[in-house]
Write a structure and sequence with these properties.
This protein is an alpha/beta fold. The protein is built from 14 helices and twelve strands. The radius of gyration is 23 Å and the shape is globular. It folds into three domains: 7-79, Arc Repressor Mutant, subunit A; 85-200 and 380-393, ATPase, nucleotide binding domain (Nucleotidyltransferase, domain 5), CATH 3.30.420; 215-374, ATPase, nucleotide binding domain (Nucleotidyltransferase, domain 5, 2-Layer Sandwich), CATH 3.30.420. The longest helix has 25 residues, at 308-332. InterPro entries: ATPase_NBD, ROK. Pfam families: ROK (PF00480).
């Protein structure tokens, strides 16, 4: 006799897809979950109940009906605000930060920023892990894993930071191995330590929780605290190339003759022509030591557009950025472009100028119609680092059992 399977057993394969739908906000109700999964209402109910038992989501069985609504409203689904968290960390040219991030990209707790990055990766990552461990002790949360964002291409499969240009770290530093060892020494459990390039992870976060939701071919370009990075999300997955090194857009040449020397050996790259230091220099401002270069540049754009020198610097950087974006559009044909860091402030300051430059430089002008929008996540790299740590749970929520 063929064994009879329970509804829950039939629905177990749907646990991961269901959790991802709630995690990304695409299934706010059980009715939507049923439709998206292509299962019966009973199976969707069993799946939601199991995810709630794992303390991953909340099911509101008595939601209020909207005015004029006919019939009983569907159960509302949301991530559990008191559920497990991932430890997320970001290292950048001006310091490092640690945070706890729950499902839905919610930052639950953050440690104070550190403004010192020693030349020894071991010392930096040990300090980051200790800051994260302190957050876990204070909150009493269960940790599912840990993700780290670094301002460098991260080679696969070994996890070496090949070009930490704006850090004093040695090229090829084994950050994934060091990160894992620091986590083990601190006794932080979960399902492993993950590492990735900061802009790649910001793009992943924007695609799942921010301005990139719904995009099929998403291009993200952003200034970090120093330099410029890019990332591409295709059909919901990061495109990192054969060895994790794709989309080094910072080294597109936009000022070949009179451009500044770049760390890569060339001249006039986006990396040195459109980053915060380039903007402050173009605006005639001397960088100060009190806050990061990124914050100084963003504050200047937001508060001083009536200053002619600042306005001219904005126009210069937009023209350089637009030239680089047009080249990327011609090659990649994305359906949306997200700009982060200082670039977000530039596009908000003068969106028509940027769209105009891209349109004039794009093939037939048609590709210039691609939407160019500012990022919406203030800490995208942190949220993206957490996404790496959450992925094993999104693939199989039953990992949490026991």
């Amino acid at each position: 006799m063929t064994p009879t399977h329970t509804r829950l057993e039939r629905g177990r394969s749907a646990l991961g897809p269901a959790l991802e739908l709630v995690h990304t906000g695409r299934a706010p109700t059980r009715a939507v979950l049923t439709s998206e999964l292509g299962v019966t209402r009973a199976t969707a109910g069993a799946v939601a109940t199991e995810l709630e038992a794992l303390r991953l989501i909340k099911v509101d069985q008595r939601p209020h009906a909207a005015a004029g609504h006919q019939g009983r409203p569907s159960h509302r689904l949301s991530v559990n605000p008191d559920g497990p968290v991932a430890l997320a960390a970001q290292v950048h040219a001006d310091g490092f930060r640690a945070a706890l991030v729950g499902l839905g990209g919610r930052i639950v707790a953050t440690a104070p920023d550190c403004m010192d990055v020693p030349a020894d990766p071991q010392a930096v990552l040990a300090a980051v892990v200790e800051a994260g461990a302190q957050l876990l002790r204070e909150t009493g949360r269960r940790c599912v894993g840990a993700g780290l964002a670094v301002p460098s291409a991260v080679a696969e499969p070994g996890g070496e930071a090949l070009n930490p240009l704006h850090l004093a770290w040695p090229a090829g530093a084994e950050v994934r191995r060091i990160w894992g060892e620091c986590l083990t020494e601190a006794g932080i459990g979960g399902y492993g330590g993950f590492t990735g390039n900061d802009i790649n992870l910001a793009a992943l976060a924007e695609h799942r929780h921010g301005a990139g939701q719904g995009a099929k071919d998403l291009l993200c370009v952003a200034t970090g605290h120093r330099g410029v990075g890019g990332a591409l999300v295709l059909d919901g997955r990061l495109h990192t190339g054969s060895a994790g090194l794709a989309l080094e857009v910072g080294h597109l040449t936009v000022c070949p003759d009179e451009g500044a020397p770049c760390h890569c050996g060339s001249r006039g790259c986006l990396d040195v022509e459109t980053d915060p230091l380039a903007f402050l220099t173009a605006a005639g401002r001397e960088p100060g030591p009190e806050v990061s270069l990124l914050q100084q540049a963003r504050d200047l754009v937001r508060s001083s557009m009536d200053d002619e020198a600042v306005r001219t610097a904005v126009e210069v950087l937009i023209d350089r950025l637009g030239l680089g974006l047009a080249g990327l559009v011609n090659i990649l044909n994305p359906d949306r472009i997200i700009l982060g860091g200082l670039h977000r402030d530039l596009v908000e300051a003068d969106p028509e100028r940027l769209h105009g430059v891209v349109a004039r430089r794009s093939l037939w002008g048609r590709s210039g119609a691609v939407p160019i929008v500012p990022s919406t996540l203030d800490h995208g790299s942190l949220v993206g680092a957490a996404e790496l740590a959450w992925q094993p749970i999104l693939d199989d929520p039953l990992r949490l059992v026991g």
